[in-house]
Design goal:
By secondary structure, the chain is of the alpha/beta class.
């Protein structure tokens, strides 16, 4: 059996979407013992080419997975980012190559129509319909784009939204996808291995370094509290996409050093150590956003929040998007304003008993979203749909 996973630019990006895909591969290895699994992705230069073995080594280090090299391949598609035409040509190549597979997972966002024997679409958040996205005025063009949208909606055997929040928008936007082809599958979260190292007075933020994450707001919140500034350290860790290098430098200047530290493009082992060291975890994507009008600007699930909880960090996260499904009152706090964020954080920091109780509860709740739960849920879905 040949299984394909299309993930855009995994050679160049290290984020939640990429982590999902890599962990999906590890899970599929356990479900399909003799399958050949192919990562299909772009390659922009000869110097970026990796062998199958080198690729597996790379993703295991970056994402902390334990993918076996047996039967795992990387299918690199030569690409160029220079023109719209080259992207269109790449899309056609990708769609054509998908015919090679028995089962194909579309792990990135977009409207690609893959053509394997069986096709599964991972929905991190649904794209707008083509006829809406293009805002085309010509009637005939709208009809043609509408036909493409219907083809996309009808091509996939299963759509797997990553939260109830995401599914609500998938159902609303893509009304022509049957309800029985929509199955919520929470992302696979790797539990952080326990450490004997004691926790420090440290607040941790783990996020891709980009403007949509509202990191300036969290820096402002930290600086607004004389108590936190004097007694706690704020650590911001994450990958820096090539297009955001300047922003990363601006953000570090904005933070102004002191007891705010940045850890950039670190391996998962370093991130795990920071989770284990930290008492509190912050998340703010969606701050200042109307989640009904601009849901894309919210976190649609929150892998880093679950990772933090598994390491015993107390989650104090924004009351938006998928975060609401992860954190409840037993294990942490959900805030609406920066003053609430600071107030909740100070309360936890000042009460050791509260911090310990919430920490233990966070670890227990994280198990609902761990790799084992993901494997069980995916296995159930695939069996129910006759794909396993």
């Amino acid at each position: 059996m040949k299984i394909g996973l299309y993930i855009c630019d995994i050679l160049y990006n290290t984020g939640g979407t990429e982590a999902y895909t890599v962990r999906l591969c590890q899970t599929l290895q356990s479900l399909y013992k003799d399958a050949e699994i192919y990562f299909v992705t772009e390659c922009y230069g000869k110097s970026d080419v990796l062998s199958d073995s080198e690729f597996v080594d790379s993703i295991n280090v970056r994402f902390g997975t334990e993918i076996e090299k047996r039967g795992v391949h990387v299918k690199l598609m030569n690409a160029s980012q220079k023109s719209w035409g080259s992207r269109l040509f790449l899309r056609k190549k990708l769609e054509c190559n998908s015919r090679f597979f028995d089962l194909f997972f579309y792990c990135s966002r977009g409207h690609y129509i893959f053509k394997a024997k069986k096709n599964v679409c991972i929905i991190h958040f649904p794209m707008e319909r083509l006829e809406t996205l293009k805002k085309e005025k010509c009637f005939l063009t709208r009809v043609r784009l509408g036909a493409k949208s219907r083809k996309y909606a009808g091509q996939y055997d299963i759509f797997l939204p990553n939260s109830l929040f995401t599914k609500s928008f998938l159902s609303a936007i893509w009304y022509d996808i049957d309800e029985d082809r929509q199955c919520v599958l929470y992302p696979p979260v790797k539990e952080i291995a326990p450490s004997s190292e004691p926790k420090r007075n440290q607040i941790f933020i783990c996020s891709r370094i980009e403007k949509s994450k509202n990191l300036e707001s969290l820096i402002d919140a930290f600086k607004s509290s004389a108590f936190l500034m004097s007694n706690y350290k704020l650590v911001i860790a994450g990958g820096v996409p090539c297009c955001h290098k300047n922003y990363s430098q601006e953000l570090q200047s904005y933070a102004g050093g002191g007891n705010i530290e940045f850890v950039l493009n670190a391996p998962f082992s370093t991130i795990s150590r920071l989770y284990n060291q930290s008492k509190i975890f912050w998340h703010s994507k969606g701050f200042g956003v109307d989640e009904k009008k601009d849901p894309f600007l919210c976190e649609h699930f929150g892998i880093s929040t679950v990772e933090a909880m598994s390491a015993g960090c107390v989650p104090i996260v924004i009351n938006k998007g998928g975060q609401k499904e992860i954190v409840d009152e037993s294990c942490g706090f959900k805030w609406n304003t920066l003053s609430e964020l600071v107030s909740y954080t100070e309360a936890v920091a000042l009460d050791d008993e509260l911090q310990m109780r919430l920490s233990r509860a966070a670890q227990e709740r994280s198990k609902l979203f761990c790799m084992g739960s993901f494997r069980d849920n995916l296995e159930s879905i695939l069996k129910n749909k006759g794909l396993l």
